[in-house]
Automatic annotation (TrEMBL):
Upper classification of the organism: Bacteria, Bacillati, Bacillota, Clostridia, Eubacteriales
Domain Helicase ATP-binding: 240-392
InterPro entries tied to this protein: Helicase/UvrB_N, Helicase_ATP-bd, Helicase_C-like, P-loop_NTPase
Biological processes, Gene Ontology terms: DNA recombination; DNA replication initiation; double-strand break repair
Molecular function GO labels: 3'-5' DNA helicase activity; ATP binding; DNA binding; hydrolase activity
Source organism per UniProt: Candidatus Desulfosporosinus infrequens
Protein name from the UniProt record: Type III restriction enzyme, res subunit
Domain Helicase C-terminal positions: 425-569
Annotated PANTHER family: COMF OPERON PROTEIN 1, PRIMOSOMAL PROTEIN N
Keywords for this protein: ATP-binding, DNA-binding, Nucleotide-binding
Length: 569
């Protein structure tokens, strides 16, 4: 998207996506005939500001002088100044508009301003917004630029020069792909291209308004009673949200402890104070799991739900529930952010998603990370005193977390068609409930599934992995307790609760299973009041440091919960 560099009556240099007289600001007196990228225009503006022309700037400049100065800068930048000429803008008489058209324009403008609040959008996103509003691309551009001219928003280059290189303004990536363009060297960011193009020739529209314009009435009706463990943690969350001296906290919870609901009372308070709230998570299945709980406890409150599969991308409301990819489409929008599963893929280790989350936070905003398996960075921040730590070590049923047991295997665990000595152990586990077997590789799922089907011909045995075309139906049947035994990769390490489930981790010493994955897999066991206990079996040839850490974390949670009187002995 390119802009025309414009000169106003007061001598200020600006820009517009239009050159038609009826679409230009009434203060514009001339514009440069050839459009430029916003990044190029900003270079011209910066050069103008850096000029050591004391006499020039300390007298009222004539229009012609400013025009010549701009053409001189353009020539210095290596462009052919003959390609650029100044076009004068003559005032026009405003033609009275049809009242029907005026009403429609007002309705579109009102809807635009209601749905655009706090957004950071590429031009492609704006065009998608135009389709939802059922208007033309030119109209959405005019609406956006009018908002910019009124000081509600700004245009920024999607990728702009940074030092001797470039930086993407949507995800912060500096390792970008450079290439020659009509306007000199340009750059493309590949880091965030999954949500649309981002190049130095593109622009971002940043709306700088809050999602809420003041205190709001909130009907918060929780359908649950907090346990003592949740009440203590919830009180600390509330203290953190109200404390102006801290901006980051970590809620370290036991798997299945109900950490999300702990945040609901603080979210309700924040909304009542006029503070916007974001619940974010890396995966859409986590989002889809939280949506009905929020709608149940916040009846009638407008909730924006945004994932990659959301049919309606533009919604209104002071509370947003979104995947971390969708959060990149917000800018300085949220006063309070609850970031769930901070250590999960694809958020953990992604600089782009981390940048997007932090820049979606308003000035003096608060961010609370929620996880059962904190990242090394999070724990380091706690140790350095930069992050407040809140603990939730116990589940609602007051039963200790199942501690994994290590079963040493003297043989290779590669799928070879026979499980030998493991038949008896699996049969014993099945007496207690369905068995979930985790394997480290996709290539192991099918062979192990077939092997177990042969060993247990009377059982219902199935398996799945991330790219399995039948995954959704199989997971649905698994939730319905249709299987005796299910083989899976780490796709089921989070976000699933199965009553009575028993867990076996084959090749627990494999590098793909770090301590966080092992804790999460173990955390599938004993989550329900009906089946608060169970067994977790780590099967491997050796004990790794990750396995030791996972066991230590679980034991520490149990120890803390016992000391606080939150679980039974």
């Amino acid at each position: 998207m390119n802009f025309f560099l414009t000169l106003n009556k007061n001598g200020n240099v600006s820009f517009s996506p239009f050159r038609e007289r009826d679409k230009l600001n009434t203060s514009v007196i001339s514009y440069l005939s050839t459009p430029l990228s916003l990044a190029n225009i900003q270079v011209v503006q910066e050069r103008l500001q850096r000029r050591d022309l004391f006499a020039f700037w300390h007298k009222v400049p004539k229009q012609k002088d400013t025009q010549l100065e701009i053409l001189k800068i353009i020539k210095e930048l290596g462009w052919d100044a003959q390609d650029f000429t100044w076009k004068e803008v003559c005032p026009i008489l405003k033609i009275s508009q049809n009242p029907v058209d005026e009403t429609r324009d007002h309705e579109v403008w009102t809807t635009f301003n209601r749905l655009i609040l706090g957004r950071q959008l590429s031009y492609g996103d704006l065009r998608g917004f135009a389709r939802e509003l059922k208007i033309k691309d030119e109209e959405i551009t005019k609406l956006a630029h009018t908002s910019v001219e009124q000081g509600f928003a700004e245009w920024v280059p999607a990728v702009r020069p940074h030092g001797s290189g470039w930086q993407c303004q949507r995800c912060g990536e500096k390792d970008v792909e450079e290439w020659p363009s009509l306007y000199g060297m340009a750059a493309t960011c590949r880091s965030c291209e999954s949500i649309g193009s981002s190049t130095s020739l593109d622009v971002l529209y940043r709306d700088q308004r809050s999602l809420l314009d003041g205190p709001t009435e909130v009907r918060f009706q929780p359908h649950w009673v907090l346990t003592e463990a949740q009440r203590l943690a919830g009180q600390q969350v509330f203290e953190f949200i109200k404390d102006a001296s801290e901006d980051t906290a970590l809620l370290w919870a036991a798997c299945g402890a109900g950490k999300t609901e702990v945040c609901f009372p603080s979210a309700a308070w924040a909304l009542e104070q006029g503070k916007s709230v974001l619940f974010a998570a890396p995966r859409q299945d986590v989002i889809n799991d939280v949506v009905p709980r929020l709608r149940r406890d916040f009846p009638d409150y407008p909730l924006q739900v945004l994932t990659g599969t959301s049919l309606v991308k533009f919604q209104s409301g002071g509370m947003v529930l979104a995947t971390t990819h969708q959060v990149s489409r917000f800018w300085r929008a949220f006063d309070v952010v609850f970031m769930d599963e901070m250590d999960a893929f694809p958020y953990h280790g992604s600089r782009a998603l981390e940048w997007g989350l932090k820049h979606a936070l308003r000035q003096n905003g608060k961010i609370l990370y929620l996880t059962a398996t904190p990242s090394p960075e999070g724990l380091k921040g706690v140790q350095q005193g930069k992050i407040r730590l809140i603990r939730l070590p116990a589940r609602h049923h007051r039963t200790a977390l199942p501690v994994p047991i290590w079963e040493r295997s003297r043989h290779s665990l590669e799928p070879n068609g026979c499980i030998g000595l493991w038949t008896t152990q699996i049969e014993r586990l099945r007496v207690l409930g369905p068995v979930l077997v985790f394997v480290p590789k996709i290539s192991w799922v099918d062979p192990w599934t077939k092997c177990l089907q042969r060993c247990f011909p009377d059982w219902s045995v199935e398996g799945s992995y991330s790219s399995d075309p039948g995954r959704s139906m199989k997971i649905k049947r698994l939730r319905q307790c249709k299987y005796d035994l299910f083989v899976s990769t780490t796709i089921l390490e989070r976000g699933i609760t199965l009553s009575g489930i028993q867990v076996v981790v084959l090749a627990a010493d494999h590098p793909v299973f770090d301590e966080r994955a092992l804790v999460q897999m173990a955390g599938r066991v004993g989550r329900t009041r009906e089946s608060p206990a169970g067994n977790v079996l780590f099967v491997s040839k050796r004990m790794t440091s990750a396995m030791k850490t996972a066991v230590r974390w679980i034991e520490e949670q149990n120890k803390l919960a016992l000391e606080l009187g939150l679980i039974e002995t």
